[in-house]
Amino acid sequence: LSRHYRTIHLSLALHRFHIHYWMSFAMQRGLELTGQRISSSSEHTLTLVPVDDGLKHRPRPEWAIVYMTCELNDAEVWLKSALPEESGKETLSLRQPVEKCYCLSVGKVSYGREASPLGVKCRGLTEGNPTHRLVVHHLKGAWTMSNREVAFALFDSFMKTKELKKNLSTEALKGFRGDTTTTPLKSRNRNTGGQVTPPAPPPPAPAIQATPSPMTKLQSGQAATMLQQLIAEAENKNVVFSDDLSTHTREQQLQGLAACHEDDVVHKNWLIALVNSQVLLKGIETKGYVILSAAKAEILQRVHRPVWKDRTLVSKTTWVGSLECMQYYATVSAGENDSLDENIMWLNVE
């Protein structure tokens, strides 16, 4: 039935959502995500490609994304960790008290995938327009001692869970299953009484006295050392150096200049832009905190032509970053009761 659809439009909208996520059933560490509105819209096209292999097949369906846009408004992320139980205090609830730490908030996040003409895949886009574009407006993040401990614990739990899934996967258990599935062959030799006769033992092999070959004699003693030295020298290229290196140096400089001006970018894959972003940094040595701000920050991922390295053709990807109007501010007089539970003095855009 899906082959009859040529174009599909998908649209999703959630006006308000509240998500609680815990790493385990013990509910020791987790995060809380709240948002006012999230919307997504996309268009997909179907192309039936004939299979040309000498046999009769149905055309192979290939779905292509024409465009995709997503938008998130007024979202906040809080990290949560369970507080230790106090000794001598009765607990009236089955759940442990939870401490919430402010982590991140965004005013608006928009994602767009570059629209491609019908019948053209996204790989064939022009080099000037990136395939994926992510723009974050009014990002505010805090990195404190409590946030760091919870974030590292969440990351450590995630990596351990990933490693456990990998160890328990079917690929990892193939080695153990191979030994258990093999069964020894049963002997078919039976006597007239129905008893199984054991197979006759193989005749003992005659004792053969090993005599060293000329190659073995050559590899022992000083001859082996000289042979290994000759093999090591054969891999090295013999180069004769001279005092006059002007021509060789000039050629290297010309190749370096040509490589610097050469544009081997195939296409731009990701563009991440942060507009009016702020990050709060707070330590434990001193009171107060520092706020880093930037009017515009961009991170661009570029895909280059494959390069030849160590006798292997490898892919090449570069990341380019830029900052505009970067400033940092610090609190001048921090109070004795310095806590982030109070209102943070974020910078105004106006």
UniProtKB/TrEMBL annotation:
UniProt xrefs under InterPro entries: Hobbit
Coiled-coil residue spans: none
Domain of life: Eukaryota
Matching Pfam families: Hobbit (PF10344)
Location of the region described as Disordered in the Swiss-Prot/TrEMBL record: 175-207
Bias (Polar residues) ranges: 179-195
Matching PANTHER family: ANTIGEN MLAA-22-RELATED, BRIDGE-LIKE LIPID TRANSFER PROTEIN FAMILY MEMBER 2
Name the record gives this protein: Uncharacterized protein
